[in-house]
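Fig. S4 source data, part A: sequence.
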Amino acid sequence: MVKKDVAAWLESFRDGDIKDKKYQAKLFDTFVISVYLYDKKLKIAFNFSGKKNTISVPLDASIVDNIEKGETHLTGVRLALFW
């Protein structure tokens, strides 16, 4: 596999619709190994090697309330994932 092929494969994710469930599943299946939900945080392990292959996102009461209401628009989490 050459650098050009890897770059082309990564660019194939660039123009996806983040609201499209199939696109979301493709991103998740490709880049995420696991997601752990704790009482006060969300921990995500990504599919790459290195020291920073996990992140922890603190969950405050407003985020938990929104999830329980079925409102899943988590801008802060999305920023952490795609920054």
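Fig. S4 source data, part B ends here. The helical segments are 3-11, 21-31, 61-68, 75-82.
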